[in-house]
Amino acid sequence: MDHHLPVLVVVTALVGAPLCILVRQPRVVWGLFTAITWSIAAMAVTLLLQVLSEGPVRYALGGWPPPLGIELRVDVLGGFVLTIVSGMAAVVAPYSLRSVEQEVDAARVHQFYAVLLLALTGLLGLTATGDIFNAFVFLEISSLATYVLVSLGRDRRALVSAFRYLVMGTVGGTFFLIGIGFLYVQTGTLNMLDLAAILPQWIDTRTSAVAFAFLTVGLSLKLALFPLHLWLPGAYSYAPSVVSAFLAATATKVAAYLMLRVFFTVFGQAVAFGELPVAATLPAVGLFGALAMSLVAVFQTNLKRLLAYSSIAQIGYIVTAASLGTQAGLTAGIGHLFNHAMMKGALFLAVGCIAYRIGSVRLEEIRGLGRRMPWTAAAIFVGGASLVGMPLTAGFISKWHLVSAILAEGQWGLVALILTSSLLAVAYVWRIVGFLYLRDAPSGAAPVREAPLSMLAPTWALVLANVWFGLDTRGSLGVATQAALGLLGGQP
Amino acid sequence: MSILAHYNDWAVIVLMMAGLYIVISTRSFLKKVVGLNLFQTSVIIFYISMANVTGAAAPIVTEPVDAADYANPLPHVLMLTAIVVGVATTAVGLGILVRIHEAYGTVEEDEIVRHDFDS
Amino acid sequence: MTVETRVLFALLLPLLGVLGVLLARRRPNVREAVSLAVGASLFLAVASLVGPITAGADGHVVLARPLPGVALELRLEPLGVLFALVASFLWVVTTIYAIGYMRGHGEGHQTRFFACFAGAFFGVVGAAFSGNLLTLFFFYEILTVVTYPLVTHAGTEAARRAGRTYLGVLLSTSIGLFLFAIVWTWTVAGTVDFVPGGVLDGRADRVAASVILALFVFGIGKAAVMPFHRWLPAAMVAPTPVSALLHAVAVVKTGVFALLKVSIYVFGTDFLFSVPIREPLLWVAATTIVLASLIAMRKDNLKARLAYSTIGQLSYIVMGALLATPSASVGAGLHVVTHAFGKITLFFAAGAFLVAAHRTEVGQLRGIGRRMPWTSAFFLIGSLSIIGLPPFGGMWSKWLLGLGTLEAGEPWLLGVLLFSALSNFAYLLPIPVHAFFGEPDDPSSLEGVREAPLACRIAMAITASGCVALFCFPGPVHDFLRPVLSVGP
């Protein structure tokens, strides 16, 4: 049983999707969804513990040994990301009951959960696989499901946003596919470890460099690295609240994970950072994006949109940290991957609570909400503090590692960029807090009640996780360190 | 000579650029879908042409022989999957377009932007 | 109770205070009683730590270990205990004053006011007891955020604008520069703990140490070194008790206290002496002193004048920290105390003028001494102490600082100090003099003006006597500080 875990994690979600369609009854479907996500989360945690104690797990699909067959391979990083993704799904599940009832047509609720499970399947599969073409397929499964999820938003602008996302996402996916093609031409294999073994002897060829460029650009589109981010703000702001929260915490993270795989597992640190100019370009691009997007976020009037721009900025941090090419940087990036999932998840869920009660997330409409929805507002406050990097929150830990990793490289320009952009983060978070607490409610506003417990509890679970991982980092950075070591060490 | 020898690559490049150009330049959402299709098709040709082995036969093997006599079957199989992905993308894209048409009465980006995104 | 429990207790008391104030929100008398009781117990709790500290205990408490090698921890040393002692004592006095002021002035949102006030002391005590830079930073930030509602208390557009300046300057300097300096210290030294003798010596080259020092001096925006001083005058829109306690004592002193800690425990005075940027930074502090004095002379609004006076006086302490000689360091530590007592008296009096006679401008105070003799007399005492004349406490700290400039071989700084003392004369003393002997422009305007509420007068009497007491008995404070600073005579 235990050694089937890698495939079970993926297949459980995959089988769940058609089950949802068959069941149809909204409440029952929700129950099924919750049960599936919780059991996947449990499996993912077990898998992570197993990997931590025994080293990477390999699983040959259908019994065909790699490199001929497709293999699933979960190392510490993979287990960590699997845990993040499935954990977020599990947290979102209880929340979605009320939120989805309100935001999605009753006739479509079962389809909604089915597609959400498909998205989950894609994300999990992409993380678990050890075959790069397989990764492409899972990437497209999750992307296709995501386009549909975004288009289910109530606002008709959701449709346009979903379509734009589809166009850019497909271009990104196809770029990735082209990159794989070049790799295959060069090496004749698709298995990541096999690639890693064969590539070094061909690394001087232009084919390899072109493959690397296509893969990087394609993934940058998927993870919305500035300036390839244009699809993200619309997609996050008009999607249903549950989808925004789930995607913000997982989708771009998994794309970032795939980027790490390509950089460190497939090409390897020596190649990506020795032969190819990654460390000279990507950190600057990432941080410049962080700066620009933070600046844009300051001027947003829609809360979800503001958080979306902030997400792009944070992705810039992750890419920057990871593309420094050092162990400290990689640890910081992987740690931020986790911490950012916690904080953005918490914030988007809290914003969803507001949308649930007052039907709008425009800053003007949330004036004085601190009094009327104290728990929700407090969740935004703490989540925001974490985003800014207040000590005692997860965000602080991330920032600490990020800055010290950059300092260790002596990149002063980058340090200036990161500090400026974190000041901008203070500005936009404070703007939200100011609207929540320091403005009076609009006159004649309808009385508002606090969000229901089933939505508050998941929100606060993530908020408390932010505080917890600000105090005790064994679960986040401890694992991230091991994951970084695993990536750099090139384990079997 | 050497330029013409790579005629398959040129086809791929021309198709790819045409597709990408359509995706970027057109203001009609429907034409963007067509452009995407073209773009994806070029990649399929790219894979298929790389599987070709000069003078080789289709890989239908009846008895153990030299592998160099056959075209590489793997890219073909990969492209089956890629075609499925492409078709699914087109289907989802067109599905969303149908709903956009229901909501806005048009699939022209300019008009939609005028309706909603100007405010 | 062990020392450690008492330390933790002292840290948590203000939080209890917040809770108590919120619970008693419907009953103002109980609410104020809670404030007073918590303030008094905090003072006693801190006072009970003096003995163990002198005996060499350090009350080390680890709150959490968020990063490998960096804990959130409390560790006592004399400077911090002294700061906490002064702040908590003045909290009690200010609460007495605030009761008279807030009711006399009919301010709204009093529960929020008292709750935030108590919350601010969570930050102050935490900062005072902090055992490393990270902890200090954390409580420093808490203090900024918690005092923001106090600054914007009035809720007007002007107050909100002032609040933006307040928060903007303090947060941007702390996150942009202070935090950066901390992380850099950590990368260089591998620790951010406060260690007697410093941690940077021998680990940071002179250039890096210079940049780090500059980042600290400017990044600790609460020390109000120009050009990052704008938040302090802006904060004067707050009710007077806030200006008095927080923006003359608790908040600004947290800033200079942090700088002192950095100079003594991160750089170490010996190493600091060899950092090349020390000299230019001394110039900055001196410029701040001179400019602030000049601006104060031109301010007609009484609170604004006091605010600029505070900016100047804070740079005395910054200067003392940078001079890094024994006398200068002790003088700086002592100045934290003497300036606190002097300036709070002045602010109390300013608030009393506002409550009793609705006067905010210096020009309106002519002749008011006849109607408000007590308040005017206390103002006089406060002014004299700030100027540094005997028989008031301000003299000793200025004396030691002056001595420090000579020890460090920077006699020109003594000139700056003298200039500043003279300008203090020029902008503070005329106020009480005119109050007693001046003729009001419009005699009828004085009709109906009565002395300030009793609670206000009691508070002023306590702080004014404090000024005198510090002159007569500076010894205990001096002796208490000596071990940290390893001073000779």
Entry summary:
The complex is a heterotrimer of chains A (492), B (119) and C (489). Chain A is 78% helix and 2% strand. With 492 residues, chain A is mostly helical.
Topology:
The complex is a heterotrimer of chains A (492), B (119) and C (489).
Chain A: H1 5-23, H2 26-54, E1 57-60, E2 71-74, H3 76-103, H4 109-128, H5 132-151, H6 157-187, H7 192-198, H8 206-222, H9 231-238, H10 241-267, H11 269-275, H12 278-298, H13 303-322, H14 327-358, H15 369-372, H16 374-388, H17 394-409, H18 412-438, H19 453-471, H20 474-489
Antiparallel strand pairs in A: 1-2
Chain B: H1 2-5, H2 7-25, H3 29-51, H4 73-104, H5 109-117
Chain C: H1 3-23, H2 28-55, E1 61-67, E2 70-74, H3 78-104, H4 110-129, H5 133-151, H6 157-189, H7 206-219, H8 231-234, H9 240-267, H10 269-273, H11 278-298, H12 302-323, H13 326-357, H14 373-387, H15 394-407, H16 411-428, H17 430-437, H18 454-472, H19 475-485
Antiparallel strand pairs in C: 1-2
Helix pairs in contact in C: 1-2, 1-4, 2-3, 2-4, 3-4, 3-9, 3-13, 3-18, 4-5, 4-9, 5-6, 5-9, 6-7, 9-12, 9-13, 11-12, 11-16, 12-13, 12-16, 13-14, 13-15, 13-18, 13-19, 14-16, 14-17, 14-18, 15-16
Descriptive keywords:
B: 119 residues, mainly alpha, Helix Hairpins, 73% helix, C: 489 residues, two-stranded antiparallel ribbon, 19 helices, globular
Model description:
The complex is a heterotrimer of chains A (492), B (119) and C (489). Helix content of chain A is 78%, strand content 2%. Chain A has helices spanning 5-23, 26-54, 76-103, 109-128, 132-151, 157-187, 192-198, 206-222, 231-238, 241-267, 269-275, 278-298, 303-322, 327-358, 369-372, 374-388, 394-409, 412-438, 453-471, 474-489, and strands at 57-60, 71-74. Chain A has a domain at 277-486. Chain A is mainly alpha-helical and 492 residues long. The mean pLDDT of chain A is 88. A two-stranded antiparallel ribbon of chain A has the order 1-2. By secondary structure, chain B is an all-alpha fold. Chain B has a single domain (2-117), classed as Helix Hairpins (Orthogonal Bundle). Helix content of chain B is 73%, strand content 0%. Chain B contains five helices and no strands. Chain B has helices at residues 2-5, 7-25, 29-51, 73-104, 109-117. Chain C has a two-stranded antiparallel sheet. With 489 residues, chain C is mostly helical. The relative contact order of chain C is 0.10. In chain C, strand 1 and strand 2 form a beta hairpin. The longest helix of chain C has 33 residues, at 157-189. In chain C, helix 14 runs antiparallel to helix 16 (411-428). The radius of gyration of chain C is 21 Å and the shape is globular. The chains are: A mainly alpha (492), B mainly alpha (119), C mainly alpha (489). Chains in contact: A-B, A-C. The A-B interface holds A 133, 137, 140, 144, 147-148, 151, 156-157, 159-160, 162-163, 166-167, 170-171, 173-174, 177-178, 181, 184-185 and B 20, 23, 29, 32, 36, 39-40, 43, 46-47, 50, 74-75, 78, 81-82, 85, 88-89, 92-93, 95-97, 99-100, 103-104, 112, 116-117.
